[in-house]
Amino acid sequence: EYRPSDYRIYTSSDNSNWTEQVHETSAPPANAWKEYSWSSVSCQYIKLVIGTHGSSGTRVYESKINVESI
Questions:
Q1: What letters, b where the CB count within 10 A reaches 16 and e where it falls short, cover 10-37?
Q2: C-alpha separations of 52 from 9, 10, 39, 62, 68 in Å
Q3: DSSP secondary-structure letter at 56?
Q4: According to the model, what pLDDT value does residue 70 have?
Q5: Does residue 5 or residue 65 have the better pLDDT?
Q6: If 0-12 CB within 10 Å is exposed, 13-18 middle and 19+ buried, where does residue 41 land?
Q7: Which pLDDT value is given to residue 56?
Q8: End-to-end alpha carbon distance in the chain
Q9: Integer Cα distance of 66 and 46 in angstroms
């Protein structure tokens, strides 16, 4: 199983100061798309931090980031 059970998504405008946008404490559904959204932020970087990997590790098959210019 490659689904993590604890992970966070952060944003940053300078790659030094990070703001947590998502904190999940349960595994995403098997064979399904998991979608997240948060209030508009000005950022240049997005990172995914895995706290607890699945029993076989973690795999991210796809990500899509929508960017809006203000």
A1: bbeeeeeebeebeeeeebeeeeeeeeee
A2: 14, 16, 26, 19, 32
A3: T
A4: 64
A5: 5
A6: exposed
A7: 93
A8: 40
A9: 12
Strand partners, 9: 22, 48
What is the amino acid identity at position 13? S
Q: How far apart are CA 45 and CA 60, in angstroms?
A: 17
The span from the CA of 43 to the CA of 46, in Å, is 8
14: helix, strand or coil: coil
Up-side HSE of residue 60: CA atoms within 13 Å toward CB? 11
pLDDT in tens, 13-58: 999 999 999 999 998 888 878 888 888 888 999 999 999 999 999 9
Q: What is the pTM of this model?
A: 0.84
